[in-house]
């Protein structure tokens, strides 16, 4: 069981679940509550908008996302046996879990995830949205089999798919809101604004994931060059890759403060992003330039993961800001 949980990266799956729950209840729900509508069958008084995508459907959506993500982790380890032996000195697939079993797990996870995705889309009235799950499943397979060996392509794909996790909550909430309020409200309110909020989280997820992927490639340089992978450090060199990582971090920090200045401008957000996001990011920059071995680069990679979690948890601050009318 321990090998299985390690194979599917259970900690990362918990973060996926947490991200989707926080996007729904800490961002979308409080944002919607700030928009008033008058229902045709109501008293004529304006009431706040509420979530319309059912809890049951949301649970299935989370399950579908988790299944496909788990399948992606399994197939990644399946194709990375040789490089992981060099980079990590140990593997799960081929030792504690047979290759045939790993492929079977991958197929089961993907079949379950895609099937659930189409089922949820059908229940939502947009059956073809299920194609998104099929595409993501295919991208994760080809990422492990080919794209991660190509210059920058694999990094960008993983960053996009990570950014899709918060966005997918909005993708399914939006049509549910439209279906309900376009029929039951006297006037259909503007609801595109929910994507401005979750879009900010998605952009942050993209930038930090892309940075972390390049840092991980620096960490795995020896195994990648041994097996001819065209990663950023292999093609551009380790020093250049460190500058690229640092540059992405600087851009991320600049974007954080720009969004704060243009749209929020509250002290709570300023304190949070400075203490829990920007300071750790500066620590990452220092670490990657001081690093002389794989262990130090691994520390930078772990810190990026903490930064990503801090970014997700900012949604709790959003909930407080909106609930207490602080912005």
| Secondary structure: helix percent | over 70%
Structural class: mainly alpha
Number of helices: 13
Mass-distribution shape: globular
What layout of secondary structure does this protein have?
Layout (H helix, E strand, L loop, with lengths): L1 H6 L2 H23 L3 E2 L9 E2 L6 H25 L1 H7 L11 H26 L6 H15 L7 H32 L9 H26 L1 H6 L5 H5 L1 H27 L2 H24 L3 H30 L4
Antiparallel strand pairs: 1-2
Helix pairs in contact: 2-3, 2-7, 2-13, 3-5, 3-6, 5-6, 6-7, 7-8, 8-11, 8-13, 11-12, 12-13
Describe the structure.
There is one protein chain. By secondary structure, the chain is mostly helical. The chain contains 13 helices and 2 strands; from the N terminus they run ααββααααααααααα. The chain has one domain. Strands 1-2 form a two-stranded antiparallel ribbon. α5 runs antiparallel to α6.
What's a concise summary of this model?
The protein is mainly alpha-helical and about 325 residues long.
What keyword list fits this structure?
77% helix; mainly alpha
């Amino acid at each position: 069981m321990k090998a299985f949980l390690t194979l599917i990266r259970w900690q990362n799956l918990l973060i996926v679940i947490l991200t989707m729950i926080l996007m729904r209840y800490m961002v979308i729900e409080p944002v919607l509550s700030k928009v008033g509508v008058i229902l045709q069958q109501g008293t004529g008084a304006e009431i706040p908008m509420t979530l319309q995508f059912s809890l049951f459907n949301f649970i299935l959506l989370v399950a579908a996302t988790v299944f496909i993500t788990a399948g992606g982790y399994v197939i990644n380890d399946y194709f990375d046996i040789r490089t992981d032996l060099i980079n990590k000195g140990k593997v799960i697939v081929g030792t504690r879990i047979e290759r045939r079993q790993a492929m079977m797990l991958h197929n089961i996870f993907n079949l379950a995830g895609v099937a659930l995705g189409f089922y949820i889309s059908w229940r939502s009235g947009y059956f073809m949205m299920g194609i998104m799950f099929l595409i993501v499943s295919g991208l994760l397979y080809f990422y492990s089999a080919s794209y991660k060996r190509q210059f920058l392509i694999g990094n960008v794909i993983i960053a996009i798919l990570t950014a899709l996790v918060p966005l997918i909550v909005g993708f399914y909430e939006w049509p549910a809101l439209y279906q309900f309020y376009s029929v039951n409200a006297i006037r259909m309110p503007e609801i595109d604004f929910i994507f401005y909020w979750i879009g900010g989280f998605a952009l942050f997820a993209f930038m930090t994931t892309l940075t972390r992927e390049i840092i991980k490639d620096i960490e795995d340089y020896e195994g990648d060059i041994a097996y001819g992978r065209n990663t950023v450090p292999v093609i551009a060199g380790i020093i250049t890759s460190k500058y690229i990582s640092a540059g992405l971090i600087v851009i991320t920090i600049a974007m954080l403060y720009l969004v704060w200045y243009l749209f929020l401008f509250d002290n709570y957000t300023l304190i949070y992003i400075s203490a829990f996001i920007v300071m750790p990011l500066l620590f990452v920059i220092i670490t990657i330039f001081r690093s002389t071995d794989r262990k130090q680069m691994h520390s930078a990679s772990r810190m990026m993961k903490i930064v990503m979690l801090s970014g997700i948890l900012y949604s709790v601050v959003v909930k407080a800001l909106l609930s207490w009318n602080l912005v």
